[in-house]
Specification:
Layout lengths: L3 H4 L4 H6 L5 H8 L3 H10 L10 H6 L5 H8 L3 H10 L14 H6 L5 H8 L3 H10 L14 H4 L7 H8 L3 H10 L14 H5 L6 H8 L3 H10 L17 H5 L6 H8 L3 H10 L14 H6 L5 H8 L3 H10 L9
Helix pairs in contact: 3-4, 6-7, 9-10, 12-13, 15-16, 18-19, 21-22
């Protein structure tokens, strides 16, 4: 049940006070909740305007608007609006040389504090510190123990990260900094001797010999366009153009019988050439059947030819034959 404060209507005098002070202070003054005041202000599209003090106006134009906004705790657009309203020209950042005292602060105190004291932008302070090769004074160092360094390179970096409680990127950076090679990478690195064995044995046998999944061997062999090793008893004769034309026109078993290839070889050759498998339910249309399309209703033609109605309509549309209409 709503309270009396929630049911109380807003007056014109109360609406005029919105945005003149903080929502919390105005809620105490009006005897309403902070959420009610904030919701009413948003409904009226009234922004909270922090009053400008004379000392705030004196800072305008002395630095870029973004720096003054951070200094005064205001949005950048509000600073620009106030500066243009007072007719103060925009002050661009002037690149000035670093003094010796300013350079001594780099790496001693945080970059944000250096930027505040020297007036240089934070990005310029960070770039100058990195250019001088000085580390951040407030960085968090998670030092490695000798027993943790001994794990690097002996197992994948992901496993080292799991055992040491660190993230993968920290382990990778530490191993590269110590110049330790990755002897057990998560991704298989192929040597010339291993590539020479591709196609000389079955992919599963080679994967078992290398200690990696079979699909890794298959992908590498296919990427190099190396044919698979055939089993004993299969035909090694090459495919002729006449045999290739049979792929997809007949079932794979029928093509295997006619070409004296194995069914697996027929399937592999058809898939390698991106040829669809022949469907036994797909009957080719003859010229006589095509001549009957459009001479009568599609349903009657379908029953006459022993085909489905959808197949008959699809064939007629494909040949751009108009539908039959009674005269």
């Amino acid at each position: 049940m709503k309270t009396e404060a929630h049911r109380k209507r807003w007056t014109v005098e109360e609406d005029e006070l919105l945005g003149t002070k903080s929502d919390r202070a105005l809620a105490r003054k009006l005897g309403r909740s902070v959420g009610a005041v904030k919701g009413r202000r948003h409904h009226k599209r009234i922004r909270f305007l922090k009053p400008w003090r004379p000392e705030d106006d004196k800072v305008l134009g002395t630095r870029p608007d973004s720096q003054i906004a951070k200094l005064l705790g205001r949005p950048t657009y509000a600073v620009g609006w106030r500066r243009r309203k007072l007719g103060i020209p925009y002050r661009r950042y002037e690149r000035r040389p670093w003094t010796r005292d300013e350079l001594e602060l780099l790496g001693v105190i945080p970059d944000a504090e250096v930027a505040r004291q020297t007036g240089h932008p934070l990005s310029t302070v960070m770039f100058k510190r990195q250019q001088l090769g000085r580390p951040k004074p407030d960085q968090v160092m998670d030092y490695w123990q000798p027993e943790e360094d001994k794990l690097l390179g002996t197992m994948p970096d992901a496993e080292v990260a799991k055992r040491t409680g660190r993230n993968y990127l920290a382990v990778l950076k530490r191993r590269l900094r110590l110049k330790i090679p990755n002897r057990t990478p998560a991704r298989h690195v192929w040597t010339q001797a291993q590539i020479a064995l591709l196609g000389t044995m079955q992919d599963s046998d080679m994967a078992r010999q290398l200690g990696c999944p079979a699909h890794v061997v298959t992908f590498k062999r296919r990427s190099l366009q190396i044919p698979t090793a055939r089993k004993l008893g299969t035909s090694l004769k090459p495919w002729t153009p006449v045999e290739i034309k049979l792929l997809g026109t007949l079932p794979d078993e029928e093509v295997a019988i006619r070409t004296c290839h194995s069914v697996g070889a027929v399937i592999q050759q058809r898939q390698m050439r991106h040829i669809r498998k022949a469907s036994p339910k797909l009957l080719h249309w003859t010229p006589r059947e095509d001549s009957l399309l459009g001479t009568g209703p599609d349903g009657g033609i379908a029953r006459m030819l022993g085909r489905t109605l959808s197949a008959t309509i699809h064939r007629r549309h494909r040949l751009k034959i108009p539908a039959w209409r009674p005269r």
